Structures are given as structure tokens and as C-alpha cells.
Amino acid sequence: MKKSEQKKFIKVLNENRRKLIDNARRALTGDVHLDPNDFPDEIDTASSEAGLAFIGRLRERERALIQKIDMALRKIDDGSYGICASCEEDIGLERLTARPVADLCIDCKSQQERLGH
Length: 117
What we know:
Blueprint (H helix, E strand, L loop, with lengths): L2 H27 L12 H37 L14 H6 L7 H9 L3
């Protein structure tokens, strides 16, 4: 991969990481708490708890994506970015452009999905 392409991906990955961290900070400063006295009945309480559980799942997904971004940045540093973790062939630039954290080429990812992983 050319240095100019690497620089482009570093910029994209860092920007994605910054957005995720900003979203997490906003969520932390928001009023995300449960006070049973705020809800007149069990249905309202259950609805709020379901909403908080959903927010928790989103936060977990964001945390996992940040870890993938960090891994991609480390791979750029060590020269292994853009190489499929399974077959060790180049991951196409189109795939990396669409999903900069991709660690599998499209063929290996398709095979992984067929196998249910």
C-alpha cells in the first residue's frame, strides 16, 4: 500500500475514533439514569430499562469498534494493514474504503459469513 493511501486511512480511522469517543462522552454527560420515583407504573419502568439496555448495547458496539480502529492503526504502523488475516492476500482498496477496519478480504469474509462465524 502506498504511503499516500496509508495517510488517507490514518486520517479516516482517527476521525472515526474521535467521533465515537465524542458520542460516548455526550452519552456519559447525559441524564441516563433510572429513578423509580420518576415512573408511575411498571410499564413505564420496563420501557425505560429497555431503553437503557439498548443504549448499553450501542456503547458496547462503539467500544468494540474503537478497539478495531486501534488495531488497524497499529497494523498501519507495523506494515500489515490491508493484508487479510486469513489468506494473507491484499484486501482490496474498495473494501478498505468502505470498511477501514476490515481485517479480512471480501472472499474470506464471505466464507466466514457462510460458515456462520
